[in-house]
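Ticket opened by: R.M.
Priority: normal
Category: complex prediction / small molecule

The reporter submitted a protein together with magnesium ion and asked that the result be attached to this ticket for the collaborator who will pick it up next week. Submitted input follows.
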Amino acid sequence: MDKDLSDLQIQYTKGVGPQRSRLLNRLGIRTVRDALYYLPHRYEDRSNLRKISNLRYNNVETIAGRVVAAEVIRLPKRKMTIFELIVNDGSGFIRGKWFNQPFMQKNFKVGQQVVLCGTVKINSYHGGIEMDNPEYEIISDVASTRFRDDSFIHTNRVVPVYRVTSGLSVRQIRSIMFNILNTCIQDVHDPMPVEILKRNNLPILSESLSQVHFPDAGVDLGLFNRGVSNFHKRLSFDELFLFELGLAIMKRSAALDKGIAFHPESMRLKRLIRMLPFRLTMAQERVFSDILKDMKLPHPMNRLMQGDVGCGKTIVALMAMTVAAENGYQSALMAPTEILAEQHYINIHRMIEDMGLKICLLTGSTKERPLHEIASGEIDIIVGTHALIQEGVTFKNLGLVIIDEQHRFGVMQRALLRKKALNPDVLVMTATPIPRTLSLTLYGDLDYSIIDELPPERRPVETMLFNVHQKDKIYRLIREEVHKGRQVYVVYPLIEESEKVDLRSAIQGKNAFEKVFPEFSVGLIHGRMKPQEREELMTSFKNGVIDILVSTTVIEVGVDVPNATLMLIIHAERFGLSQLHQLRGRVGRGAHKSYCILLAYEPYGDDARKRLDIMIRSNDGFRIAEEDLDIRGPGEFFGTRQSGMPDLKIANIVRDAQLLNTARREAFSIIDTDPDVRSFPLLRKSLETFWKGKIDLFQTG
Ligand code: ADP
Ligand code: MG
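Result attached by the on-call engineer:
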């Protein structure tokens, strides 16, 4: 897009002025460019409006007619008002009804030409036809003397419908858009290389912009309304392409950076593998050999290790850290929360010390901070939160960074890591099995390895749904497991904002379980305990001293006690799908059959029902991730805001997955031959604008 249009303030376009420009700003429109990219959220076909006499009941229909009455009806007994608008189009009358919105009256005047869109109903009382809360638009203000000459924009055609803000009607926005397109479209320069457009059958930019706002007659409105018309595709492609270009550039520049060439021949590694009470799975071996290959190269590793909960990522990470230590380099293992960092520390510190290496935990609340030992290189492995890197603890020679991801550490932060002139090898671990095409967007600058195999003898966890009236059954199952010598988790959710309240429910829960099971030992673990207390408690659970461990969700991930075979999740209806799956992954880690009991409290909504249902039907993390993505939508699922990636405003990575693949291929092939995008100056400019404020792509180029 031409730079000039992003400099053109919306205030100075025809028909806008200071007041409207303030309203447009509220919609995020500051410049002419913003306006061009403010797309309609739907389209209405007003080229062939149906007559009121021909309306089909229970269908969503659009009609146009003249206002013959606009009145507020008060029903004092029912403490209610109804605003009624009666419209006539020559063939019949229809009522629009708005409940408890008497102020609507001031929007209408008798004689105005209006469009109503809504579900057609029959009034059971008097038999007239009506629409409840229809969408409406005032087409021409015949009541006023001023004649408007742009009414052809608003009717007799496919019209765009925009999201509005109070004080600015859809009709006004439509007129402004029409003006802008008329006056500015010739200034839109297409930054996309022509060959790419040709190859992928995509229309040019100016045509796409004008069509997505004002489609020609006869287009397939279904495609437009879903945002997948060829013109929409072109605009989505632009975003995805710029996004992938950025990733391609980052990936390339990282590959050229100088890094550490580790020597993998490691005695300690052999010892570690010998020490393990199990054999590595083929998938673990394969992924570890990918990692070793990277570590040997004189460039920094940037690899993603993905795998379902319980597939054994931690041990692979540990093997990599052992290699680094043997080469005289330090490693950092970073988790997104303090509790997770702590859990990693608890899980691995013994093994590491058995190998004669030194490890420490470093989070915001660690009292003893062995900063000297870290700076002197005495400590080999530092486990902590992301803050570890951001706060700039001084290392002697940090050679390997392992990021335990849970989607909270994105492209940007990894770039930051490199910018700090640290060029360590980076391994990102994620337990969320994102469908492969999609993980390319989030982790597109990384190489990718997947552990697609669970350790043998793992049996799928049997998942059951219970309600509050079935507590006795639940108690019986718990009793049976403990009598068999197994252990049980009971998890309470984050209900309130305040951790105090959660804690209270967990404490009450613990007391209740102690009453029901006086013969068992019940423990309680939560986020407010001191790290040391928590570690002691986890150790006694691990050692079998505690039979039933009650916890708040703080223990969500990372706990590893193979003898625990039953997980009871209280208020399961309140948990997200991925979270439920993660929790369930805490059991089924040993050779014994395991159970997950979801205790759900009615009533709950459709989404909750879907989540619980999927949990019962499936143990497959990929399936679950896909369904979760479907329920929550990509924005929330990926938490893209948190990771600081550029926003995708038009494209939707789920809907446009195929387009994304194409964009990726095209982007990477450009960067292969022209790493600084010199042959396409307009494209380069767009690219810089797209990534602006996120990362300076061409700093080193
Ligand atoms: P993840 O981090 O992928 O969720 P972990 O690394 O915590 O999984 O491993 C889960 C459990 O499986 C741990 O108890 C670990 O010791 C065990 N484990 C790992 N690899 C194997 C294997 N190849 N065979 C048997 N058990 C394994
Ligand atoms: Mg783990």
